[in-house]
Design a protein that fits this description.
alpha+beta; 8-stranded antiparallel sheet; 6-stranded antiparallel sheet; 14 strands; 19% strand; elongated; disordered N terminus
Length: 465
């Protein structure tokens, strides 16, 4: 659900920003920014004076240039703010397009399980949808039949798939998540406009420009300076009349706009909105400009294990055999169980076996071979060929499978290895051959490139971890 990569030179952002900058010239909208409101008033005054001078053939090039620059100043300030707002709107449009792409297989006959393809927006509370391996879940709901492994990394950042099954406490599924195994029937629990993606869109579109205390203080300061320079310009006008000197209104206005902090006032809103947009590029939603300043004042950073500082997919890093088993046999069985596994974990096991143990495709059996796909019910995958049964999967599931035919298994060594892996932040996968547990594959979530450098930068800023 990527919402990045919206360039400001995109015509979908530029053209609406040009139009919006004209509408923002409405005095009702500009009065909230006292400095730019003053600029707008004097610009309108100068424009009327210029038209009057043109009618009486007394207009000068200087007068025309001043009026043009005054309007350019206002429009540029409005345009910069419109560009920043347009970026946020583009993020919301990206999320909306993602939602529109969600297709559901709605069950129209519960007896025969006959389905019909519908758009996610057509689903209502109580509808049943059929979701199979490789499908995106179209709407928030509960699993009412079946069990499946769900990839929720796009929503939670957690790399490890979650098992969702009917009748359990963990049966709720979220729109936009991916089914990795098996088939389930989901009962819709949210009407259109109420599911997770809709809430994300509402958060992005509802991000407001709440002013922070520092920004309010700065506005007061800028307004005070503006009042001071108004008095100064009036004094200059009075002095010029006293000494019988001729200073045109347009010239005085040009001096006034030059003196007051127009640039700061004109770009203040754009800076705040741009800060919110920059956070959104890093998947952080700031609900207001005030939140950005609060984030800048933070001195302690709390991070979870996955998604934030890690890639989001687990990779095999080590093979650990149990006593009495050779590491070569463990690697070979792990490779055979994974060479048809298209998940990132399966590919990483194959890659580790090939790169570190010189395993080649020559060991792959060709006669009477059948691949056992991972199932959320068994939490095991593997292959069968000839009289060999090779399996890999969750440690508890492998132990249960082992105990079906061998009740005297001593779990102490295996559990000790599993605890050590877990304490180190890894995830263990047990490997079994013909009901004999060979050992464990260690899976770890890789740290994102450049994280170390970013932490060093945070430390220089005084941020504690």
């Amino acid at each position: 659900m990527n919402t990045n990569n919206q360039s400001i030179f995109n015509k979908k952002i530029l053209l609406p920003a040009v139009v919006e900058s004209l509408f923002k010239c409405n005095p009702y909208k500009m009065y909230k920014n006292p400095v730019m409101f003053c600029v707008l008033l004097v610009t309108i005054l100068c424009t009327l004076i210029l038209f009057n001078n043109i009618l009486h053939n007394v207009a000068t090039t200087f007068d025309s240039a001043c009026v043009i620059w005054l309007w350019f100043t206002i429009l540029f300030a409005n345009f910069s703010e419109s560009i920043a707002e347009g970026k946020s709107k583009a993020q919301a449009e990206t999320l909306k397009s993602t939602k529109q792409e969600l297709i559901a297989h709605k069950i129209i006959n519960e007896t025969t399980l006959e389905t019909s393809k519908v758009n996610a927006e057509e689903l209502k509370v109580g509808d049943l949808i059929f979701v199979k391996k490789g499908d995106l879940i179209a709407c928030d709901g509960d699993v009412v039949e079946g069990c499946a492994s769900i990839d929720e990394s796009t929503i939670t950042g957690e790399s490890e798939p979650v098992i969702k099954s009917s009748g359990s406490d963990n049966c709720a599924v979220t729109a936009g998540t991916l089914v990795l195994s098996d088939e389930i029937i989901v009962k819709i629990t949210k009407n259109p406009g109420e599911n997770f993606i809709d809430k994300m869109i509402a958060l992005v579109e509802g991000s407001s420009r709440l002013k922070s205390p520092n920004e309010i203080s700065l506005n007061i300061l800028l307004s005070g300076l503006t009042l001071i320079f108004i008095v100064a310009i009036i004094a200059i006008f009075g002095m010029s009349r006293y000494y019988n000197s001729s200073l045109s209104i347009i010239m005085l206005v040009a001096l006034f706009v030059t003196l007051i902090p127009t640039t700061i006032a004109g770009l203040l809103s754009a800076i705040g909105i741009s800060g919110m947009d920059r956070l959104l590029k890093h998947n952080v939603i700031a609900l207001s400009g005030k939140a950005i300043e609060a984030a800048g004042s933070a001195d302690i950073l709390l991070l979870d294990k996955t998604g934030t500082i890690t890639v989001g997919n687990r990779y095999a890093t080590q093979f650990i055999p149990l006593k009495g088993n050779s590491i070569d046999e463990l690697v070979q069985v792990s490779y055979l169980c994974s060479f048809k596994d298209e998940t990132s974990e399966g590919r990483s096991i194959v890659s580790l076996a090939q790169n570190n143990f010189s395993i080649t495709d020559e060991i792959i059996p060709t006669d009477k071979m059948s691949f056992i796909e991972f199932s959320a019910f068994t939490r095991i995958s593997g292959i069968d060929y000839l009289d060999q049964k090779l399996r890999k999967g969750a440690v508890n599931a492998i132990i249960e499978e082992h105990k079906k035919n061998n009740n005297d298994f001593d779990e102490s060594e295996l559990q000790s290895i599993v605890e050590n892996i877990a304490s180190d932040g890894g995830t263990p996968l047990a490997v079994m051959k013909n009901n004999n547990i060979l050992g464990v594959i260690v899976l770890k979530d890789q740290i994102k490139p450049g994280i170390k450098e970013k932490f060093l930068t945070l430390k220089k800023w005084g941020l504690k971890q």
